[in-house]
Design a protein that fits this description.
319 residues; alpha+beta; 6-stranded mixed beta sheet; 4-stranded antiparallel beta sheet; 8 helices; binds ligand DP6
C-alpha cells in the first residue's frame, strides 16, 4: 500500500505583531511577536506517494491556491525533504476547516500543518530522525514566518529562530468580525518589505518589544483574575495593531486594508469599552477583518456586542 500521512495545525492571531524582517529570505523577524493559538481554525494536510504536486483535500471547503501560493507550499516541502536527506515524489493535499473566502490568513496554519505532516512522513522513512518541536518551528518559519507560532498552544512567543510556548494559564474565546471577503491587494510578505520605507518605521522594533513586555505582564495579572490588567491588555493590543496599520498607510507607496465596515466595528468596540469599562481585546492582521478575544465569562455579553455584525466565533455564535 502507498505510504500516506495526515496532520493538522491551528492558525494563530498575533497580539504583538511580526511586521518587518531583519532577514527577508529566511523570514527572520525584526521584533519579537506574541500570539494566541486558534485551535478551531485548522489546516489539514495529507502527503502520499505519487506524482509530485498539490491538490485541494476533499471533504472540506475547497481551497484554491494561486500558482505562486502552490509553488511556495511545494518548495517548503522540498526544503524539508532535503534538510532530512530524503527524496521521492509525493502528492500533497490540503484544506482549511474555515471558508477560504472569509478573509482569514491561512498561511500560518498551512505551513505549520505541512511541516508536521512532512515530519510524520520523514519519521516513517527514517525512524531514527528525532527533531524537536523547537527545530520544527524554526523550519516552519522558513516557509512562512507566522506559522512557527502555530506549533505551540495556547500562547506562543517568537523571538528569532523559532517560537516557544509561553507559561500563561489563560484561555480566551476568539471571534472574527468579517467585514470583507475580497482578495488582499498587498500580501503580508509584501507588507513586510514595504513598511521599512515608512518614516515611522524607525523605532518600531523597540516599540513592539516594549509593548510585548508590558502585555506579558498584564496577561499574567489577568490570569490571576485582575480586571484592571484586562483593560491594560486591551490598550496595548489596540495601540499595537494601529501601529502596524499606521506603518502600512505611511509606507511609500502607501497601502491599507481598513474599510468602512472595519471602522464601524472598531468604533463600536471602543464605545463598548468607554461606556462599560469592559470589552474584548481587539486586534487586526494585514486584512480588513477585526479579531476579538474574550474572557470566557464574557461570552453572553459578547453575543450582544456582536449583534448586527457578520461574525465567526470559537463558540459557534453567528449573528
Ligand atoms: C500581519 O507570516 O504571512 O499576520 O513570513 O512573509 O510568510 P511571511 O509573512 P506572514 O506575516 C504575518 C504578518 C501578520 C502579523 C503576525 O501574524 O504576526
Amino acid at each position: 500500500m502507498a505510504l500516506k500521512v495526515e496532520a493538522s495545525a491551528p492558525s494563530n492571531i498575533a497580539l504583538i505583531k511580526y511586521m518587518g524582517k531583519s532577514e527577508s529570505s529566511s523570514n527572520r523577524p525584526a521584533n519579537t511577536s506574541l500570539s494566541y493559538t486558534l485551535e478551531n481554525l485548522r489546516t489539514f494536510v495529507t502527503i502520499e506517494e505519487g506524482e509530485s504536486g498539490w491538490q485541494p483535500l476533499p471533504g472540506y471547503p475547497e481551497l484554491q491556491l494561486s500558482e505562486k501560493g502552490r509553488l511556495k507550499f511545494l518548495n517548503h516541502f522540498e526544503r524539508l525533504w532535503s534538510t532530512w536527506n530524503l527524496s521521492g515524489s509525493y502528492l500533497i493535499r490540503s484544506a482549511n476547516n474555515f471558508p477560504s473566502d472569509c478573509g482569514l490568513a491561512s498561511s500560518a496554519s498551512s505551513f505549520a500543518a505541512l511541516t508536521l505532516a512532512a515530519y510524520e512522513l520523514a519519521r516513517r522513512l527514517r525512524p531514527e530522525l528525532n527533531v524537536t518541536l523547537a527545530e520544527l518551528s524554526r523550519l516552519s518559519r522558513l516557509g512562512s514566518g507566522s506559522s512557527c507560532r502555530s506549533l505551540f498552544s495556547p500562547w506562543a512567543v517568537w523571538r528569532n529562530e523559532g517560537a516557544e510556548a509561553v507559561d500563561l494559564p489563560l484561555r480566551l474565546e476568539h471571534a472574527v468580525v468579517m467585514v470583507e471577503d475580497g482578495h488582499k491587494a498587498v500580501s503580508s510578505s509584501e507588507a513586510h518589505l514595504r513598511v521599512t520605507s515608512s518614516l515611522i518605521y524607525e523605532g518600531r522594533p523597540a516599540r513592539a518589544e516594549h509593548r510585548l513586555e508590558a502585555l506579558r505582564g498584564a496577561l499574567a495579572e489577568v490570569a490571576r483574575g485582575s480586571k484592571p490588567a484586562w483593560h491594560e491588555a486591551y490598550e496595548l493590543c489596540w495601540s499595537e495593531f494601529w501601529d502596524m496599520h499606521a506603518l502600512f498607510e505611511t509606507s511609500r507607496p502607501a497601502f491599507g486594508y481598513m474599510n468602512a465596515g472595519t471602522l464601524r466595528c472598531l468604533n463600536h468596540m471602543r464605545h463598548i469599552w468607554q461606556s462599560t469599562g469592559d470589552g474584548p481585546l481587539v486586534t487586526m492582521d494585514a486584512g480588513p477583518n477585526v479579531h476579538l478575544l474574550f474572557r470566557q465569562e464574557q461570552k453572553e455579553e459578547a453575543a450582544i456586542w456582536l449583534k448586527g455584525f457578520d461574525v465567526m466565533t470559537s463558540w459557534g455564535l453567528k449573528s
